[in-house]
């Protein structure tokens, strides 16, 4: 991130210029000096607790539970890159409230992220990432955030917010392709993180991961990987009530990031076990 | 308190009596001394081009940047003091960033230009600061389409179809006016800009060109023109310049030949005239010499006649003298002979004188 010290004011000296000549209001400047290295250069601080919310001496609660959420995000590596997949639902509780919410987003030419959990928090995270990549763009020196840097950054952000008792309620998948190697990592809402050849968030961790463990190989072709992804999505869709049959697939390769148009998968609900889901689970209903 | 400013050039917070702010004027001069920077707004985007004077032979190519992105959809090219330019750029980036975080939308070109102008203007109003020695060409491509702005050290801001600042601005502006910007695409624009930059560069020393654009080809992002395209444009510009020079040379050659022809004609004419004059003169000379000879002959004749006459006169007078002499001689001879006969001695001189005086006295006495 571009560090913007209060250059003009410091050089000119206090009081010599009107406050408008300062690049940012004095209050913001001071806050930046307190801020951590990963603080955005403008806008609200990422990691401080809003003092107003603590006015009553009580920790704030309204951000402590998700409202509009997305369900699982899946990711797998393959021979030439990484595939990420998710549906496009923003659920308000169990209401399928927003059906075209794009939960897979491009960060830069080598990296894409997908998020489940609170979608407003995801939008906020995307704003942080956009600011970072905008700064990279403005520096115009050919450098950009590598996938593992984006991953580490998000780990720090989410862990730091957890430490403020004001977590960002997301599980994030970071996929990228850099230096001829695919990168795939995930971050949980409290900063838990790991990288793997296949990852999934939420329900997907239970429903899709077993399939991936069984069928995934690092040297899969794109077709094989896509087929596996479709299968995983379908399984998730069959079992996860908070999902819809409208998916997106993000692909990160040496050529860059492409995020597909939303598509639906063919489903078959005539399985006998679907007719009587409790047959193999006595005691359920 | 002496010198051209008479003390009114010490601070931007003082007007001169005729209404100038000299420090601001001087800032503008700093811009006028820098390498030329051109901006044109084509039909599908904006092209910026900068002529970078080579500070040193050891300088890395592509350094000493003059064009800077300040957001994805906007960028600037700075003419003047590079360091002041950086300050402007970093402010522009901060403004763009701030607008985006506040409104969630990229900053529109006119807002960014206005904010930069306001910022620049602030440095013209306080004694403790100096104005920026920078003119900023701002290219943006937002919802309102492609726009080009110029922010000057005084804090003025205008939107242009095309403009130029720096050393070669006058020539460049003239060339820009000839372009049909409404019909020109950015692809053509970069070549046009490169041509103009090469045309207005009048020093022996080489320069580095920096081209940046924002258009559909660049994905509506402010970018330096891809190296390959920039190289093509530069090659075209160099070729055009060479062609121009050759044309000029050809013109010179033809005019030289014409001059030579004219000269030869003039020389021939002169020669002829000279020959004629010589002929005339010779003729005249011949006539004159003839005349002279005649005159001489005449004179000789006259002279001979006169001589003859004179000789005759002399002879005549001699004869007359002889004739006149004769009686005298005769008389003398007679007298002599008579004297000899009479034996009288001639009186000495003194006696003769006395005799004469006495005779004279006698004469005068008889008179009275």
TrEMBL record, chain A:
SUPFAM superfamilies on file: N-terminal nucleophile aminohydrolases (Ntn hydrolases)
Keyword Iron-sulfur applies: no
Keyword terms of this UniProt record: Cytoplasm, Nucleus, Proteasome
Domain of life: Eukaryota
Subcellular location: Cytoplasm; Nucleus
CDD domains registered for this protein in UniProt: proteasome_beta_type_4 (cd03760)
Name of one Pfam family that matches: Proteasome
Gene3D superfamilies the record matches: Glutamine Phosphoribosylpyrophosphate, subunit 1, domain 1
GO cellular component: cytoplasm; nucleus; proteasome core complex
Cross-referenced PROSITE patterns: PROTEASOME_BETA_1, PROTEASOME_BETA_2
UniProt entry tagged with the keyword Cytoplasm: yes
Main location as per UniProt: cytoplasm
Record-level GO BP terms: proteolysis involved in protein catabolic process
Subunit comment: Component of the proteasome complex.
Family as reported in the entry's similarity comment: Belongs to the peptidase T1B family.
UniProt function note: Component of the proteasome, a multicatalytic proteinase complex which is characterized by its ability to cleave peptides with Arg, Phe, Tyr, Leu, and Glu adjacent to the leaving group at neutral or slightly basic pH. The proteasome has an ATP-dependent proteolytic activity.
Name under which the protein is recorded: Proteasome subunit beta
Species, as recorded: Chlorella sorokiniana (Freshwater green alga)
Automatic annotation (TrEMBL), chain B:
GO biological process, one term: ubiquitin-dependent protein catabolic process
Subcellular location: Cytoplasm; Nucleus
GO cellular component: cytoplasm; nucleus; proteasome core complex, alpha-subunit complex
Domain Proteasome alpha-type subunits, first and last residues per copy: 8-30
Coiled-coil regions, chain positions: 242-320
Keywords from the named record: Coiled coil, Cytoplasm, Nucleus, Proteasome
Region (Disordered): 349-368
InterPro entries, per database record: Ntn_hydrolases_N (IPR029055), Proteasome_alpha (IPR050115), Proteasome_alpha-type (IPR023332), Proteasome_asu_N (IPR000426), Proteasome_sua/b (IPR001353)
Primary subcellular site in the record, as a coarse category: cytoplasm
PANTHER family membership: PROTEASOME SUBUNIT ALPHA/BETA
Function: The proteasome is a multicatalytic proteinase complex which is characterized by its ability to cleave peptides with Arg, Phe, Tyr, Leu, and Glu adjacent to the leaving group at neutral or slightly basic pH. The proteasome has an ATP-dependent proteolytic activity.
Family label: Belongs to the peptidase T1A family.
Protein name: Proteasome subunit alpha type-3
């Amino acid at each position: 991130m571009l560090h913007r010290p209060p250059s003009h004011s410091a050089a000119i000296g206090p009081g010599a210029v009107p406050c408008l000549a300062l690049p940012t209001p004095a209050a913001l400047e001071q806050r930046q000096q307190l801020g951590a290295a990963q603080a955005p250069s403008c806008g609200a601080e990422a990691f401080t607790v809003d003092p107003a919310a603590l006015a009553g001496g009580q920790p704030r609660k309204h951000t402590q539970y998700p409202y509009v959420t997305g369900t699982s995000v899946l990711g797998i590596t393959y021979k030439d890159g990484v595939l990420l997949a998710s549906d496009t639902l923003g659920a308000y509780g169990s209401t399928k409230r927003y059906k075209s919410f794009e939960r897979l987003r491009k960060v830069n030419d080598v990296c894409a992220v997908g998020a489940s959990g609170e979608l407003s928090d995801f939008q906020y995270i995307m704003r942080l990432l956009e600011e970072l990549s905008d700064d990279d763009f403005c520096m115009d020196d050919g450098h950009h955030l590598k996938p593992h840097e984006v991953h580490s950054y998000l780990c720090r952000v989410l862990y730091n917010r957890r430490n403020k008792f004001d977590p960002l309620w997301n599980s994030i998948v970071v996929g990228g392709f850099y230096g001829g190697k695919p990168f795939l990592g995930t971050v949980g809402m409290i900063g838990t993180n790991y990288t793997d050849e296949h990852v999934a968030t939420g329900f997907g961790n239970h429903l899709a991961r077993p399939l991936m463990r069984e069928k995934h190989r690092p040297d899969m072709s794109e077709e094989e990987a896509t087929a596996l992804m479709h299968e995983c999505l379908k399984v998730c869709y069959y079992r996860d009530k908070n999902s819809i049959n409208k998916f997106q697939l993000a692909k990160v390769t040496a050529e860059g990031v492409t995020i597909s148009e939303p598509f639906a998968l063919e489903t078959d609900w005539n399985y006998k076990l679907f007719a009587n889901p409790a047959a193999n689970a006595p005691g359920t209903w | 308190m002496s010198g051209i400013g008479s003390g009114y050039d010490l601070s931007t917070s003082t007007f001169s009596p005729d209404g100038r702010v000299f420090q601001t004027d001087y800032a503008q001069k700093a811009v006028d001394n820098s390498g030329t920077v051109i901006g044109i707004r084509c039909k599908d985007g904006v092209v910026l081009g900068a002529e970078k004077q080579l500070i040193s032979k050891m300088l890395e190519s592509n350094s000493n940047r003059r064009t800077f992105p300040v957001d994805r959809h906007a960028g600037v090219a700075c003419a003047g003091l590079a360091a002041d330019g950086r300050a402007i750029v970093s402010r522009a980036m901060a403004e763009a960033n701030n607008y985006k975080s506040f409104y969630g939308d990229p900053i529109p070109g006119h807002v960014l230009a206005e904010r930069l102008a306001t910022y620049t203007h602030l440095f013209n109003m306080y004694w403790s600061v100096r104005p920026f020695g920078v003119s900023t060409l701002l290219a943006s491509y937002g919802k309102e389409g492609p726009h080009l702005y110029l922010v000057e050290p005084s804090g003025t801001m205008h939107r242009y179809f095309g403009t130029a600042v720096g050393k070669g601005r006058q020539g460049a502006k003239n060339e820009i006016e000839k372009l049909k910007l409404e019909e020109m695409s950015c692809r053509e624009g970069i070549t046009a800009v490169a041509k103009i930059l090469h045309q207005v560069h009048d020093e022996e020393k080489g320069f580095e060109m920096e081209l940046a654009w924002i258009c559909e080809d660049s994905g509506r992002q402010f970018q330096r023109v891809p190296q390959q395209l920039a190289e093509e444009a530069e090659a075209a510009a160099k070729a055009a310049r060479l062609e121009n020079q050759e044309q000029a040379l050809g013109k010179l050659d033809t005019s030289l030949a014409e001059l030579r022809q004219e000269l030869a004609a003039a020389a021939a004419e002169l020669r002829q005239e000279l020959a004629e004059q010589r002929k005339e003169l010779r003729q005249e000379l011949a006539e004159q010499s003839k005349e002279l000879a005649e005159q001489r002959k005449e004179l000789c004749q006259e002279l001979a006649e006169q001589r003859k006459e004179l000789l005759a006169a002399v002879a005549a007078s001699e004869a007359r003298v002889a004739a006149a002499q004769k009686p005298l001689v005769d008389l003398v001879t007679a007298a002599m002979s008579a004297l000899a006969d009479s034996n009288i001695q001639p009186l000495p001189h003194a006696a003769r004188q006395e005799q004469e005086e006495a005779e004279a006295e006698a004469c005068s006495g008889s008179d009275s």
